[in-house]
């Protein structure tokens, strides 16, 4: 069976070229002005193995916000700080058939967030970050990830301004519901924190290094890594997760900036970035490349 380390730069480039055609079928997100202005032809991939050797192609120097890809790392951080038992009294671990920003799903579940990979769950977890204000909470997570992952994440202040320039009605409704049911305190700080951590940004190599944290990190409890990987597998690609697992079969997480992170158990991580999205909010070109790599490895 082929290994991730067997991939050649030429093969990766061929898939990247094919993926650029897939990107033309997608659309840029409309509700964050700066993402709407992103160059749609940007495309980058990083395959990084356990020995930290990165193979990259495309626009690997471009910085982009992690957006929802921060969610598994928010979960990992809080599992490390607060423990599994407490965390899962605050959020569930079950897939949702509704969109990632669905208020209806939260109401059907009596105000209990179904999983940490959708907005209701991530907002709930953001409310648990240590720190007296949103800046401190974001900094604590940022510093921990940079230290553990040996990467250089930073808050993209222009992206944060863009996120905050158009109030997100869906997130505000979710926050209101969570507050009404006494599930979170300090709704304003919670939303500010969530916006900031979603604007943590870096290159495709930074994202690949973060992925290695979830594959094999000697400094993090293995059970916590296993929990995060399992939830990524069932919930990481929004309501398309169940359908896509048959094609990809890797724990994965996407973000509306166009990035997708996939984990190859015991081997390494695949990080892809291409801004145009499908109807569920997943990057078309990124999914294409990851599927090609999955087929290569089987």
Task: Tell me which CATH architecture of the largest domain applies here.
Answer: 3-Layer(aba) Sandwich
Average pLDDT level: 93
| Strand elements, count | 8
Portion in helices: 40-55%
Question: CATH class of the largest domain, please?
Answer: Alpha Beta
Write up what this structure looks like.
- By secondary structure, the protein is an alpha+beta fold.
- The chain has two domains: 4-67 and 204-223 and 234-297, Beta-lactamase (3-Layer(aba) Sandwich); 68-200, Beta-lactamase, CATH 3.40.710.10.
- It is built from 14 helices and eight strands.
- A hairpin with a 4-residue loop joins β6 and β7 (259-264).
- α6 crosses α10 and α7 packs parallel to α10 (187-198).
- The longest helix has 16 residues, at 134-149.
- The mean pLDDT is 93.
Short description:
The chain contains 14 helices and eight strands. The protein is an alpha+beta fold and 298 residues long.
